[in-house]
């Protein structure tokens, strides 16, 4: 099955889920159906329902909303939804998708990632080597040190990949979890560094999705 290239009717770009992404099909009555993206074109998406369900009729297709998580929150799309092939009623095609809502469940996507980070704290800017537990475009969870207090402002240098310039800026300790790890929220970070960080997060997600698809094909 090949997707055609339709002309985008919207002037603003629409964020679409990627190939292999897991999405949710929300019906008008509130029922949620899990699905996966089979193929994606410029202005069309092919979706496969991944659980046993009845064939959707025209009224149900008309009210169907595709939900998925992007970098800036949970996106909801509507478009012209049809059954791609009557012999495969669980494969749906959405043409001319448009965003109807972005739910800001979390400002940025967060991933588990251990990356070295230098933090400078106190008036004398004491240097401490630590590492992240997770990362997002808005901050990170830091393994230590346990001397950092909520509200304390720090300077940091975060290394995403070896031999590449570190991301730097200032951050504030906003939370301490039950394991004593410090959640830092960015106070100051350049637009370029934030874009680099978000791009790194997306690449990590893409790698994880690809690994998951390979595991499915191998039966693991």
Give a written overview of the molecule.
- There is one protein chain.
- The protein is α+β, with helices and mostly antiparallel strands.
- It folds into two domains: 22-103; 110-199, Thrombin, subunit H (Beta Barrel), CATH 2.40.10.220.
- 15% of the residues lie in helices and 47% in strands.
- It is built from two helices and 13 strands; from the N terminus they run βββαββββββββββα.
- Strands 1-2-3-6-5-4 form a six-stranded antiparallel beta barrel.
- Strand 8 and strand 9 form a beta hairpin.
- The radius of gyration is 21 Å and the shape is elongated.
- Residues 1-11 have low confidence and may be disordered.
CATH topology category name of the largest domain: Thrombin, subunit H
What is the number of independent domains?
2
State the helicity in percent bands: 10-25%
Broad CATH class of the largest domain: Mainly Beta
Q: What are the segments in which pLDDT stays under 50 over at least 5 consecutive residues?
A: 1-11
Dominant shape: elongated
| SS field, number of helical segments | 2
Q: What is the radius of gyration?
A: 21 Å
| Helix-strand category | alpha+beta
What is the average per-residue confidence, as pLDDT, rounded to a whole number?
Answer: 83
Largest sheet descriptor: 6 strands, antiparallel, barrel
CATH superfamily of the largest domain: predicted glycosyltransferase like domains
SS elements, strand count: 13
Strand order within the widest beta sheet:
1-2-3-6-5-4
Distance from first to last alpha carbon: 26 Å
Q: Strand-and-helix sequence, N→C? A: EEEHEEEEEEEEEEH
**Strand residue content:** over 45%
């Amino acid at each position: 099955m090949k997707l055609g290239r339709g002309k985008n009717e919207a002037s603003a770009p629409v964020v679409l889920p990627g190939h292999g992404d897991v999405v949710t099909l929300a019906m008008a009555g509130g029922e949620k159906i899990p699905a996966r993206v089979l193929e994606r074109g410029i202005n069309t998406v092919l979706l496969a329902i991944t659980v046993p369900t009845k064939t959707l009729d025209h009224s149900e297709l008309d009210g169907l909303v595709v939900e998925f998580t992007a970098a800036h929150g949970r996106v909801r799309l509507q478009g012209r939804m049809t059954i791609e092939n009557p012999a495969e009623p669980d494969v749906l095609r959405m043409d001319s998708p448009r965003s109807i809502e972005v739910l800001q469940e979390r400002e940025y996507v967060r991933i588990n990632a251990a990356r070295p980070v230098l933090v400078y704290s106190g008036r004398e800017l004491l240097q401490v080597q630590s590492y992240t537990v997770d990362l997002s475009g808005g901050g990170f969870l830091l393994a230590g040190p346990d001397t950092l207090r909520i509200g304390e402002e720090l300077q940091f240098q975060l290394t995403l990949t070896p031999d590449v310039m570190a991301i730097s800026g200032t951050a504030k300790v906003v939370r301490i979890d039950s394991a004593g790890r410090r959640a830092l929220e960015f106070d100051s970070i350049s637009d370029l560094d934030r874009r680099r960080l978000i791009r790194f997060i997306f690449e990590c997600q893409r790698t994880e999705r690809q690994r998951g698809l390979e595991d499915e094909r191998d039966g693991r």
